[in-house]
Design goal:
about 600 residues; alpha/beta; ABC transporter transmembrane region fold; Rossmann fold; six-stranded mixed beta sheet; 20 helices; elongated; transmembrane helix; ATP-binding
Length: about 600
Amino acid sequence: MSEEKQTVLSGKDQWLVLTRLLTYTAPFKKQIGFAFFLLILMTIGDVVGPILIKVFIDDFLTLRSFPYEPLMGLAAAYIVIQVGNVFITYFQLMKFQEIALKIIQQLRVDVFSRVQSLGMRYFDKTPAGSIVSRVTNDTEAIKEMFVSVLAGFIQSAFLLVGIFSAMFILNVRLALICLLILPIIFFIMKAYRTYSAVFYQDLRERLSELNAKLAESLSGMGMVQAFRQEQRMQSEFGETNEKHYNAGMRNIKIDGLLLRPAIDMVYILALMMVLSFFGITSFDAAGGVEIGVLYAFINYLDRFFEPINQVMQRLSIFQQAIVAASRVFKLLDEKELAPSQSESCSHTIEKGEIEFRNVTFSYDGKQNVLKNISFRARPGETVALVGHTGSGKSSIINLLMRFYEFEQGEILIDGKSIKYYQKNVLREKMGLVLQDPFLFYGTISSNIRLYDDKLTDQELREAAEFVQAHTFIEKLPDQYEQRVVERGSTFSSGQRQLIAFARTIAANPKILILDEATANIDTETEEAIQVALERMRKGRTTIAIAHRLSTIQDAEQILVLHHGEVVESGTHQELLAKRGLYHKMYLLQNGLSHDQELV
């Protein structure tokens, strides 16, 4: 699924994004103030240097007068200023870098925290690679703006003001001539911002698509190789990569045209104007421009255009950062949040009774996947959900776990709406075991404990023994401290499921939710686990999705779903006696015909 195409940012939008970014500097006002102070000192040093050289040329070199003490004082002052500028520049750059890194650190925490609070609907429509790109690549682009652009822009602004001030002090007419170039520079900058905003928007989106393709390929590498899809994936990745290349080339072309080359042309024009004015006024009987003044002006022009060139180069980084920031802020402003809970209520789950009352639900807001679902699971009972693929079994669990918000009806736990329980209460009292268990990078111990310091090593071991996971764990080289790689790929599916069972039991939930928990387990392991499941269900309300009907024959209630509706309900024997959909499913799974007698 491709990411939604973003609109091109207008000048107003860019300003709003920049203003919002600057709010992250608020906690660092003192550090920024000190960095600006160093910046001012550095600017003064850059401006005063050429003036000292001008004094040397006009007052000593031209007159061929070289008194020892004044010259030594002038030389000492120049050396002190230059050496001082080296140290000031170092500390100023270090300070801005430190501030930028802290800002990005906080921004990344905000983005990651926001991702954790988003609802499942958002992840259904957004590729994982796109989200990763925003947290990593986009925030990195923003860091470059704080490091290079803002500090550089401010430094350049201070330097330009200082340079023009010195120019007017030295020669007003020459300074006015140099002012004529400013409108040309502003026009070039405006043109660059207008066109580059479009190109950088496209570039960031292509980079996001690259990340999405890469994440999809890596997560499904087993399927890619099993079905010989390597060539297709390479082709699709190559096509996306080509689009990214073309977008990058468009950026390079506009950079090559409107950045350094255009500014160099303006510099040559300004230099010609200054030298022409010097040449013309040199024939003036009233006296032309002094050699030292001319040197200072040419030096200032070099110093003037260097920050201009830097600003133009940094405009490229600025445009990338603004586009990246707009993508990050779009994620921060995402409204598709996880279902909200009333955190002010102090209800606790004591019995574990579950009731669905006329619940209707749709993922896309158009087609209902659950229609008027009603049932009750009494404390300690097991309610099994069966039905063909797409009948709505997983949707019921998704609503019960509060992964999605439902539109109509009510879900009650112990007679109270599920919306009026604090989220941590629901999560603590509900144990979920999926068909494909997820293991975190770490150790077996950390995966069972899930970093709950209250759970002792003895309780952890008892939980593993309860689900019969202890047998295989103690045979491992490091036992409970055995390393678990990403998604637990070094363990068999049965071992991963046993660890997931131990994790659930260790939390001691009141409500147990099983999504075909024995589907990926071999027959020998399943027999052992069925015993554990019976022990787990005792005293707990259990909602179990079952594809194999043999695993839920002892359930107190079986709900048969078809196209989002409960079409049959009852015990195993009752449903067989009805000779309806459940009866047909049972015959199919057991290889029996309608004419054969069910024993």
